[in-house]
Predict the 3D structure of the following.
Amino acid sequence: MSAAPLLRTEKLVRAYGSLLAVNGVDFTVREGELRSIIGPNGAGKTTFFKLIAGEVTPTSGRIWFRDQEVTGMPQHGMARLGVAKSYQITSIFPHLTVFENVRVAAQGAGQAYDFWRRADALTEARARAEEVLVTVGLAPKAGLLGTHLSHGEQRHLELAIALAANPVLLLLDEPTAGMSPEETDETMVLISELRAGRTIILVEHKMKLVMKISDRITVLHQGQVLADGTPEEIRANETVQRTYLGAS
Ligand code: ATP
């Protein structure tokens, strides 16, 4: 039996003037799944991500998280439900150390439900930050300023910041953008490890990575779902071949 749906959208639309950036998207991701969203530039991937993270409100359509309708819920509300997004644009505080960057994020997440137990919350945030830095391989660099990391390490720090809240649903927006092939391989291993106990949605352009790592792939084209299926199904899909894969 397949796992329960974690996040679902129905006829989701986001218009910018007369442009329908996302145009009627029906989408379901199940608990524990690793889903990739691919598509050509301007297909609506980033807008769709912003809609499900609560950064942008839908023009029409509906969104559910588990059994709760969350259409129009702002980002902090979605974060409280366990949705975290790792940003393509850096979210690192340059004047804080690697450790402090993650600790602040862990503390912020904890405060939502634990603000009256400040001392405990601080200890928990420190422990969580240490754990997350080990997970992403940055423990040896914990004392450095964020700006002293390499590009690949900064992307891993962004991931650590998103993981600090121990999210149920992790949204990764091009986690390997600008990385060398070696860094990309390392990140791929890391993402596979992060799967344990959580659901991941990935927007990514690198097809080799997407095909290897995903349970299922959703292809967007001009704001609409062109295809949805396993990597094998997507690879064999003639429409996808013609409109996207053939061209990339
Ligand atoms: P890329 O792979 O290039 O990042 P994408 O698939 O993520 O593309 P989006 O960034 O979601 O695509 O953009 C979809 C369409 O919506 C594009 O035509 C874009 O110009 C437009 N768009 C996105 N955000 C806005 C905005 N804030 N205002 C106006 N138009 C926007």
Residues 16, 19, 21, 39, 41-47 surround adenosine-5'-triphosphate (CB under 6 Å). The chain is about 40% helix and 25% strand.
